[in-house]
Predict the 3D structure of the following.
Amino acid sequence: MTSARVPDLVSPITDTPLPDKVPVGEARAAGRFGHDKPTIDNSVVLLIDHQIGLMASTRDTTTAAEFKSNVVGLAGVAKALELPVLITSSNAQWQNGDTLPEIKALFPDVAIIRRTGIINAYEDPTFRAAFERIVEETGRRHVILAGVTIGTCTMFPTLSLLNDGYQVFPVIDAAGAWNKYEADAALARMTRAGAEPVTTFALACELQEDWKNRYANAMLEPFKQNLSEYGFVLENYWNNAGDPVVPDPFATKD
C-alpha cells in the first residue's frame, strides 16, 4: 500500500529569475566569492583564430568533430542570444588558414579582423579599437572568449583583459590545445589570475537563465545541432509529444 503524496508545487509561468540577495561588491567586501555572472545584457563574445589550419592541429578533444561542434555551438549561442561578437584571424593568408566557414555563415555582417602577426588579439591595435568601441557603445564589460589554441589565443587576451579590469570567461571546450600540458598550464594561469573558465553549453544555460524568455526557440537550434547528448532528448520528446511521428500500434482504441 502506497502512502498519499502531498501536492506538488508548480511555479507560476509568470516567474522570472531572482538575483542573488547580496550585491557582488558587498559579498567581496565580506571575503566571499562575488557572483558577477555573464548575462545577455552585459556580455560580449570574442571568437579568436578559429581557423581551419589551427583547428586541425589540436589534440585535446576526443575527436575533431567534437571540437568543431563546440566552436560552432558557441557561435550559434552568441547568434541566438543576439550578443555583440568580434571575429578575428591570425595570418589567415598563410599556414593558419581561413576562419571556419560555419562561423562566417552565421555572421555574414561581421567583418573578420585579419591580424597580420600580433599573436595576442587584445594587443592588436585594430582589434583593440573594435573591442573598445563595443564597450563604449554598450557598457558591456563581461568578456566571453575562445581562441585556438588555449595556451596562446585564449590565454594571452584573457590575462590582458583581466589586467584592464574586465570580467573574463574563457570557453575552454571551444579553444583546443596541442596537448594536455598546454591546456592544464593555461587553465592554471587563467584561473589564478581571476578568470572563470566555462564550457559552451553550461555557459549557454547561464546566459539564457529561463526557457520562458524570448530567446528560447532560437536557442533550441545550437542545443539540437551541437550538443547531441541533449539534442537527442529534445528531438525524442518532440517526436512523441501530441501526435507521435511513429504511431503506437499498442495504443488503446475506443
Summary: The longest strand covers residues 43-48. DSSP finds ten helices and five strands in the chain.
